[in-house]
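Input/output pair, single chain:
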Amino acid sequence: MIRLGDLTLGTMPRIAVAVTDAALADPGWAALADVVELRIDQFEHRDAAHAAAACRAARALGRPLIATVRWTAEGGAGALGDDARRTFFEAAAPHVDALDVELRSPLRDDIVGLARRLSRLAIVSFHDFEHTPDDLMLRTALDRGAEHGDVVKIATATHTPDDLGRLLDLLRASGPPRIVIGMGALGAASRLLFPLVGSLLTYSFVDEPTAPGQLALAELYDALRHYSPAFAAAHPAR
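Output:
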């Protein structure tokens, strides 16, 4: 089993809610989240001291924390360069339970090494906002991600039922612990279905989506209670 802070992943669907620093001012939403992902690249205030303070404040939510400073080439905001991203990761790392860095990012080895030194979970991610690559490329991304991280996250744009089917095949294949997500309007279904059949996390939002096709937190919470008896048993009705 994979541990994220005090939480065991893989026993039931788990919701990670992606938030910015602004969401921490009114954290009532946290009761519906299993995990909080801090999207530092989308913070209103971008300096290392503020990032560290926000991560410390998020600890009060009582949820495992993931920090990411998303690479611009894979959906990151603010056009942050590598040096700035590294600085933010270093500021956040002591205060969170996991770091998420892109498989193709120039910072991958540095950030995975930082996670290892601090005994944090290393999530290695692959995003394609244009399409779902062919099966060989998907499997290659999964295998290469497993060479570096503890968990591999693959999120691709889905335009056809075949795209969704191939992502489901990837999720169900043998191999490392993984998170698989279809992005876009058609991919929204994957955010409910895939955690029911093994994807370790499904991602949601509070104020604005951080990726195409995300479902709002309350909507996703209620749907998982309806379709997953295990989730319903561990998560009270609103």
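DSSP finds eight helices and eleven strands in the chain. The first strand starts at residue 2 and ends at 4.
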